[in-house]
Every structure is written in structure tokens, then in C-alpha cells.
Write a structure and sequence with these properties.
Helices cover 9% and strands 70% of the residues. By secondary structure, it is mainly beta. It has an eight-stranded antiparallel β-barrel. A hairpin with a 2-residue loop joins β4 (89-94) and β5.
């Protein structure tokens, strides 16, 4: 499923490439960049069907992203892929002994819809002018897979928690080609179970993430 979603969005990037190839406007065309941030992951623990509590894991992450955006007047739509290294670990006291969770990384794909609230070119009325200074507010929805090492009662392995993300942010065109952004994201992953029989621990993570990034438009 993960590969299919990422492949579909990658194909969409390639198909969209010819459009607006010479467009000077920020928030349009191919772009790539780096981002970093931090947040919390709330983990709900269920042991043999009984809720035994919650733990909060704090950590940071950093990585790269790439996408393709189409802009019409002040409206912007984009598809984006990301790959991240995620730092965070905690030990949980489960009934059958300590259970350790260590996050390793994440990949994701998302759709972005934005609106340019300040259009510098529009304010100048000059079609050849630089568009540096444009400001966009945007929302994001998509898919994310979080990779984590789980050690629960001797059941050790690296698993992917699959889930959905939703959030929003603001982006500022520093120049025609360089953009900086700040964003908040809410993450919700599907539950995973570890152990066997009477010693089954179900882990249900969700999270909140704040990040900043910088990108270059090709």
C-alpha cells in the first residue's frame, strides 16, 4: 500500500511537469527542500483489551521533501513526498515487563491546497517584476508511515505504523525561487499489537508536530 501511494504521487509529479515550466511565480513548479521540527507522540496502551494508560514520547525529526505545485492566480495545489529521520524513545512499564519503543524514521505523501494572501506582483502591477514577498496560507492532508523498533516482552522487531496526517501552515517567498515555511501537523496512526496470548500489548500512537522548512523552486 505504501509503495502504491508513493508511486501514484510520483507519477503525478512527472505528468504535471510540462505545465508552467517557465512560470516565474513562487509556489509553482518543481521544488525540493529540507525541514526539521519536534513534537510529541501520545501512545495509548491496551493490555488484553483493557486500557492501562498513556505515555507521551517527545522527540525531533529532520529530512527532505520534494513536490510539484500548480498555481492559478492566488490558488495553489500541490503534491509532495517526504522522507524523515525521527528521534524519540521511551520505555513503558507493561504488565509482562518493560516495553521499549524507539522511533527510526518516516515517509509520507500528501496533497496541499493554498491561497496566496499577499501577492507582491499583484500589488506592483508589473508582470516582469520579482514575486519575492508572496505569502501563502495552506492546508495539508495525506498519508504517513512511522518506522519504530518495538521490544515488547521479547517480541522484537521494526514495524511501520500507518496513518493519516492533517495540518496547515504559512509559506513566504524569500525570492522567486527560495521559500521558507512553518507548519503544524496532527498525526493519527493505526494500532499495532505485540506479544501473544495473555501477554498481548496493543499500541495506538498519535502525535502533534511543529516544523519549519526551506525549499528551492527549479
Amino acid at each position: 500500500m505504501t509503495r502504491a501511494i508513493l508511486a501514484a504521487l510520483a507519477a503525478a509529479l512527472l505528468i504535471a511537469a510540462p505545465a508552467h515550466a517557465e512560470d516565474r511565480e513562487p509556489f509553482s513548479g518543481f521544488y525540493a527542500g529540507a525541514q526539521g521540527g519536534g513534537g510529541t507522540t501520545d501512545v495509548t496502551l491496551i493490555f488484553n483489551g483493557l486500557d492501562i494508560g498513556n505515555v507521551t514520547v517527545s522527540g525531533g525529526e529532520g529530512g527532505v521533501f520534494a513536490g510539484y505545485a500548480l498555481r492559478h492566480d492566488r490558488f495553489v495545489g500541490a503534491v509532495e513526498l517526504e522522507g524523515l529521520y525521527v528521534l524519540g524513545d521511551d520505555t513503558i512499564d507493561a504488565p509482562f515487563g518493560p516495553a521499549e519503543i524507539e522511533t527510526r524514521g518516516a515517509v509520507g505523501a500528501s496533497l496541499i491546497a493554498g491561497y496566496v494572501v499577499y501577492d507582491d506582483q499583484g500589488s506592483l502591477g508589473d508582470e516582469t517584476a520579482s514575486n519575492a514577498g508572496d505569502v501563502m496560507l495552506y492546508g495539508r492532508v495525506g498519508y504517513r508511515a512511522l518506522f519504530a523498533r518495538i521490544d515488547a516482552g521479547g517480541d522484537v522487531g521494526t514495524d511501520a505504523f500507518h496513518g493519516l496526517r492533517a495540518g496547515g501552515g504559512v509559506a513566504w517567498a524569500v525570492t522567486d525561487r527560495i521559500t521558507v515555511r512553518a507548519e503544524y501537523t496532527r498525526l493519527q496512526y493505526r494500532d499495532q499489537s505485540y506479544g501473544a496470548g495473555r501477554n498481548t500489548l496493543t499500541v495506538g500512537p498519535s502525535g502533534n508536530l511543529a516544523s519549519v522548512g526551506v525549499s528551492y523552486r527549479f
